[in-house]
């Protein structure tokens, strides 16, 4: 009776693993693989933040033309010397009809238009920055989902491995070569694996929901199998990557555009020392005399003692603004260099760990387990030794998966810090 209970427990635990394996295989067969590029295209095409920033860019593009234009002309009409004792406009001595135009000083409109052009460039850079953020978020979510599923596959493979070990235990127990406790140990190990498997399924569900939202889909939308996200990337030296980031990083480019805009504002402020003009022309209608033409020219006096201080304060303000923009650009350079170097170190470390595990630790753990399995069949080692070896293999496999996950996330952060894509060769192993 006890033997039957033990066999039933083992078969039940093994059946759980087989059901999970079958369910995952069905999911993979019913859907086309989702590639990383397809996920990026969907996310960038449907993101509302990018659409809003692109629309704001269209608004900014209208400003340069407005700054280059002139203010509307002024049309005036005047009546002179209309007697207070007469209601007849014909009794007045003079009618004046005039048109006037304000003319900014030479170069002022072009300088203002140049500042507006910088606003356009800043708006375009904001779009590029947000796109890079979305690319980073999609790559992070895609890698998390891919790695969570890979970890689940590792556990499913270990469930199948335990099933094979349990079959041997059942055969040895049936002949009385081992105790009932040994035959029940696979049940405990399978329960642990099942608990870990549920944890990875949770992580995969969270990553899938995040990826769906980035692709502008409902979070519960099913995601089929994933294509390999691109894997082993050739990393240049940190110093070379930092130089590349200084050229391509969109946030650093934005900081430089802010300097150029501040310098443009300063040039426009200094140009206010130049006078503006007003021209008017008109016609005088004299009912009792000969009609005549009318012309008038006005010039502002910017350097008047009572107005010079206002312009000077504006210039000083723009000088301070330009200095502040340069300081922000220097701070941004330092931040970009640090972000690149930190991401580089994380990626390099994860890459080295993954390579060590793949080429050395994993083969050794697999070989050790295979030797011990054969020794267990011939009663040269006990069951606990085989289980310990199986745990070591599982730990090495999970460490390899974590190293791959760390590398993918660090590579995504590195690309965001660089502002450009890394060149990859091969795929995740």
Describe this structure in words.
Helix content is 71%, strand content 8%. The chain is an alpha+beta fold and 429 residues long. It has a 4-stranded antiparallel beta sheet, with no helix packed on it.
SSE topology:
Layout (H helix, E strand, L loop, with lengths): L1 H29 L5 H11 L1 H13 L2 H6 L5 E7 L13 E10 L4 H67 L5 H35 L23 H11 L1 H22 L5 E9 L6 E8 L5 H73 L5 H36 L11
Antiparallel strand pairs: 1-2, 2-3, 3-4
Helix pairs in contact: 1-5, 1-6, 2-5, 3-5, 5-6, 5-8, 5-10, 7-9, 8-9, 9-10
Task: Give keywords.
429 residues; alpha+beta; 4-stranded antiparallel β-sheet; 10 helices; elongated; disordered N terminus; disordered C terminus
In short:
71% of the residues lie in helices and 8% in strands. It is an alpha+beta fold and 429 residues long. A hairpin with a 6-residue loop joins strand 3 and strand 4.
